[in-house]
Specification:
By secondary structure, this protein is of the alpha/beta class. The protein has 22 helices and 13 strands.
């Protein structure tokens, strides 16, 4: 994240107090580990070497049990703080990710697969748990406990201290080598998971279509291929983990064996150390290496978590740049007085030599300089694939032009805050999205304010939806959308119109809202459209002649180029392509 701290650094900064507590508990844990070893060595020395009675060491054993209890409590405390850190970090990251999605621009929001975004917001964030709950506590412990153990060992027997000091670096060195490979594999795993999630969600959404066209088996094979890719990536990480564990265990056993051999030689052959010293060191050595070994395991899981966090970070970078741009636009709006509430509504829309491409060497949309007047009813027409919907997306602000400007009453649309612009506009697509909820809730989503039931019912009535609500068992409280009552194409369009009636926008955009509907339903919707358009600028992607011929202005698109504009009678005389399209409609009975 250029110019910013990383996501991990941000979370660590938020949890400085917990990190300080972890450091204090780890320091106490190191003292408890050494104290336990000293007391246990004293107890064994007095009972088995000096032959003292058990009753004479009761106090010593009591102190040993107390130290062991304190050590257990400190270890538990470290674990609990790690879990709390993980829970807080996951909550913060998921909240930040969702906030970025909410405040991202529309072009950024519609980019990418929904399944991939869900996978990152859920699975990748959950995978970050290990970094905060295991990796960080172990790293703090390993920075304190081995140091104190080494100090004690050096004071007791310098040779053992040198052996421990020389062999210990092999463990972190191997951890680093394995960790780097794990991080790369982890990023690969989450790329595979995102692909699998997107493929699976697309298949579920389009299952009926796949069955109708006999492609269900083919899609099943595609899901299986994607699933196998994710499995292979996961297994490669596990392979590294098992290899890592085996090598760590080998290094630890050899290191402990070398120290034990040296102590045996000094104790039995050279008799240069006492049993108490040798036994104390033998108690501390496994603690020393086991801590490194456990840290190695935590390091592996931590690097896996870092791969997941990296995917979250990448997604936040993609949306954050857009949201930062929006913030700058809003700041510019405040300083430049370019606010929508200072502009006369309904607006005029100006297209100043717009150019747009989805991808290099792909379809290009071009327009000359043209103005849509205030309160006009404008139709965009042309053959399928000529760029009508793309032009509507550009006017709506769902896409940004590569060059040229879109103007609102002579002001650049980029000067207005996106949220403020969408408050004044309604965009009704061919297939409005119906959310899982009641009919009333789906209508009320059309406005950002609290609305009464009376307002909802009035909007439904104006959109021709009242008869449907009266037929339903629970009226406006009937569940619709996924898991509820299905709605026909005409009913979905009326619901979308009810949202617009509730909102009362100044700019209304329609993308062939009546396509595929029977003539009777289309006439009813057209009547509602005309009522809604009073006092608003309306731009419609149209296909029916009776809709086109009454428009104040008609924009004719041909292969991505706005080749002409004017009223119906004018275009019939001046634009052969338009006249040909109208003739085809008349011959086909679509007039």
């Amino acid at each position: 994240m250029k110019g910013k701290t990383s996501l991990i650094s941000q979370q660590m900064s938020v949890q400085r107090n917990r990190l300080a507590i972890l450091a204090i508990l780890s320091l106490g844990l190191s003292v408890a580990i050494v104290g336990q070893a000293v007391l246990l060595a004293d107890a064994v020395q007095r009972i088995f070497v000096q032959g003292e009675a058990l009753s004479s060491v009761v106090a010593l054993l009591g102190a040993l049990l107390a130290v062991m209890a304190v050590r257990s409590l400190l270890s538990y405390g470290n674990g609990r703080i790690g879990l709390n850190m993980a829970a807080t970090a996951k909550r913060n990251m998921r909240s930040a990710l969702l906030q970025n999605m909410i405040h991202a621009s529309i072009p950024s929001a519609i980019r990418g697969q929904a399944g991939e975004k869900v996978s990152i917001a859920l699975d990748a964030v959950d995978e970050a748990d290990s970094y905060f709950s295991q990796y960080m506590p172990r790293m703090i412990e390993v920075s304190m406990i081995p140091v104190l153990i080494l100090i004690v060992v050096f004071t007791q027997h310098a040779n053992s201290g040198f052996i421990m000091l020389c062999t210990a670096p092999f463990i972190p060195l191997f951890m680093i080598l394995a960790g780097l490979k794990t991080k790369n594999k982890s990023e690969e795993k989450y790329a595979q998971l995102a692909e699998f999630s997107g493929t699976f969600l697309n298949a579920v959404r389009g299952l009926v279509t796949l069955k109708i066209f006999g492609q269900a088996r083919r899609q099943q094979q595609e899901i299986e291929r994607s699933s196998m890719g994710y499995r292979d990536a996961t297994m490669s990480i596990l392979r590294i983990a098992f290899t890592n564990t085996f090598m760590l265990e080998t290094i630890v056993m050899l290191s402990i064996g070398i120290v034990a051999l040296e102590l045996a030689i000094q104790l039995l052959i050279y008799k240069s150390i006492t049993f108490h010293t040798a036994f104390l060191i033998l108690l501390l050595v496994p603690e020393y290496y086991s801590l490194f070994k456990n840290t190695g395991t935590a390091f592996h899981t931590g690097r896996t978590s870092m791969g997941a966090i990296r995917k979250v970070e990448q997604m936040m970078v993609e949306t954050d740049g857009k949201s930062q741009g929006l913030k700058e636009e809003q700041e510019g709006t405040r300083s430049g007085e370019s606010r929508l509430d200072t502009i006369v509504m309904p607006p005029s829309i100006g297209l100043d030599h717009i150019r747009f491409r989805y991808l290099p060497d792909s379809f290009e949309l071009c327009t000359p300089s043209i103005t849509i007047g205030q309160g006009q009813n404008v139709a965009i027409v042309g053959k399928s694939g000529s760029g009508k919907t793309t032009l509507l997306h550009l006017i709506a602000g769902l896409l940004r032009p590569d060059s040229g400007e879109i103007l609102v009453n002579g002001n650049l649309i980029s000067q207005f805050a996106e949220s403020e612009w969408f408050e004044r506009m309604s965009y009704i697509t061919q297939h409005p999205y119906i959310f899982a909820g009641t009919l009333a809730e789906n209508i009320a989503i059309g406005t950002g304010r609290d609305v009464s039931r009376a307002e909802i019912e009035r909007a439904a009535s104006e959109a021709g939806l009242a008869d449907l609500a009266a037929q339903l068992e629970h009226g406006y409280d009937t569940l619709v959308g996924e898991g509820g009552r299905g709605l026909s194409g005409g009913e979905q369009q009326r619901l979308a119109l009810a949202r617009a009636f509730l909102k009362r926008p100044s700019l209304i955009l329609f993308d062939e809202p009546t396509v595929g509907l029977d003539l009777y339903t289309e006439r009813i919707l057209q009547k509602s459209l005309n009522t809604l358009a009073q006092g608003a600028t309306m731009i419609t992607v149209a296909h029916r002649l009776y809709t086109i011929q009454h428009a104040d202005n008609i924009l004719f698109m041909d292969n991505g180029v706005l080749v002409g504009s004017g009223r119906h009678d004018e275009l019939l005389k001046t634009l052969p392509q338009y006249a040909e399209m109208i003739q085809v409609q008349r011959e086909g009975g679509l007039a």
